[in-house]
Each structure stands twice: as structure tokens, then as C-alpha cells.
Amino acid sequence: MQISNHYYLFAIILLLGCSKKQNIQKTKDDLYVNYTVLFTKKNKADNQILIKDLKRFLKHKNDNFSHSPPQWINNDSIYLKNSLIDIFRIEDSQTYPGKKYMPTLMSITPISKKESIVKIGWFMTHKNYSSPSIIYNILAEKVNDHYFFKNILPYNLRNWKRKKIKNISYTFYPEYTFNKNNAYMFNQINSKLATFFEITPLKFNYIITKNVHHYMSIKGYDFEASMFYKNQIGAETLPNESLIFSGNNSEIYTHELIHLYTHNISKNISPIIDEGFATFVGGSKGVSYKEHINSLIKYINSKNIDLYTYLINPEKRQTIITEKTSFLYSFGALLCDLAYQKEGKKGLFKLLNGGYTDEELYSTLEDLFEINIDEINSFIKKSLQDFKPTDLKLYDISEGTANGCLNEKKSLE
Fold first, then answer.
1. Which of 20, 84, 233, 380 fits a 20 to 30 Å CA distance from 311?
2. What's the predicted TM-score (pTM) here?
């Protein structure tokens, strides 16, 4: 896998290093098109029709998330209620506000008489080079004299196996050896979480893949930064779709299941608390909560950082502490633990319902810990002097016991 990833990344670098003037042409509707697509003799007439329909789709793609734009077929009846989710407003840059990633039609690959795979890259052009956001594949289907586009996920999963175990509908790649014991264990975890949150156990789809690169590929990506991270244990949860993409090659991913529950019971949860609570109960990246906290404490002590600055600064909040531990996840988990030690389940629910914005979170922390937010640094460091991480046992979470923890590391074994 490492060789193929590096080879593909090298190919992308070669592509990006080529002169834009030599290889792509901009249309009047802000769609760049690779010359090989524009001037290929084979399928030239069809390609011109496809480009025209693609421009119409892209023009209206971001109009309304709840309604399909022209030329788009919402084709997925199993996994995605809204199959446009990956590329809705993909043009907006998070790193450079106000800047836009522009679409480039890179290739059209026929797979049948009426269907083709359309590869689109979204790039931000600088003076001498282009920076990619994503390279993404969609399906194009010819209906009469026009092309309609659709999500490629159902096509990529067409030969995968499916198995329903109680409340969980699993999909897994053909060569995977399915472990029923793990599936039943994950259903038990699901039931206990439901008891804790006082709701009916959730029903959801769970797609088993080998790693992050694998699940991103079946979603349609050829390039997205996370596909090439060194640590490839990861996952993605789509709460509104009741769907988990698991990149840990296992039937169990507790951290991601917790996201389904937190978004079910709170539509107004801070990202710090959302990731923190999932790490507190389920670990993260195959590492237990205790290990994350130990890494965080070592980092705080060795760097003598100001936790207030890290909390209010969006960039510092994303600091990577170790290969598997980030400040956002581990600090959020610590806040959840301190809330639990102070007020038990009631304290956790205060955090979970404490608001989405930073200002709402700060107000909740002030009320819960009886401090001013600019005192968070001294409060946390004092709390850590004799701090013992809560070993919250998932199977007894509804009873509030604190002895033993089933987390992703255990699940992976």
C-alpha cells in the first residue's frame, strides 16, 4: 500500500508541476478542462455534450443542500440521503478565507455504453503553481441527448458483501473475514450507549475498510490530504446519514459510534467537546483515553504552554502532540473527565449541550467549573497536580461506575 500511495502522489506532483497553459483550458463558465478531454478524437462529440452538462451542474451545485441541482441524480438509496455531501461548497477555502478552489475536468473514462467516470480536481491557482483541495470521481450517465451525474459510492461498493447484525448493517470488502463476535460486541456497546443517553439503540450503516486511504477511495477520492497521512487508522461519521466509514479494519469503532449519539441528542455541541467526549469514552486512533491524557500532560509540562491561549486560538487548538494525539481531542477529553469527576453524568450533559460556538463553550466552562475563562490555564494545571484519569467502563456507563474501559485499542485486538 505504501508503494502505490507514493507512486500515485508522485504522479499528482508531476501533474501539478506542468504548465497550466500547456495542459488545460479555461471555459467561459470557470471550468478548466484538460486538453486531452477537449481535443481527443474518440468520443469528441459526446465529451462536448458532457462538458456542457457538467458546467450546468457545477453552476447550481451549491444552490441548496436539501435539493438536487440540475443534472444531478440522487442515486444512493442505501447509504446517503444526500449524495452531494462530499462536494457541496468544496470551492470555499478554509485556510484562505475569500479564496476559491476552481474545478478542473481532468479525465472522462467510459465504463459502459452509457456510463463514464468523470474525474474532477478542485485547485487554487497561485503565481507559478496550483494547490489541490481534492481530486474526486463522479459517475456520468447518458440519458437521451444529455448527461446526468451521480455519486460513485454505490458503484464502488457493487461487489462488496453485506451483513446485518441486529441494529448494525455492515458492508465489507470481498476478501474481508467477518467477525460475528465483534459485531455482537459492538451491538452491546450500542445498547449501553443508548441506555446512557436514555434513547432507543440507534440503527446505522457501518462500512469496513482497511484504512483511511481505502475508505476515501471508495467514496470517490483520488486525492485528499488525509489519504497520505502516516497514521492511517481513522474513520468518518455522517450523523445525518446514520453512516460510519471505518478505517480500522474492524467491526468495532466506539469513538465514531459516540458521534452518532452526541449528534442525536445535541444539535448544538462544540467540536472540542464532541471529539473530547468520544475520546474520553472510546479512545481515538487505536489509543486509549489514558494514553492520550498522559501524552497531553507530558506536553503541557515539557512546553509549559498557556492553555487559555491554546483554547482560544483556532490554530493552536489543532496542535499535533504525537503521531496519534492532538490537543483538540485530548484536551476536550480532559474537560469531559473533569466535568464527570465534578458532577457525574449531569456534568457531562452540561458540556454536551453547552453550545456550538466558542463563546457558548466558554460560558458553559465558566458556569460548570466556577471560574472565569481566562483562569482556565491555572485551573487545569492545578487540577492536574493530583489528577487520576477516570477509567470509565463502557458497559457500566449508565450506572456511572469507574473501573475499566473498553476503547478502540481493545477493539482492534
1. 233
2. 0.87
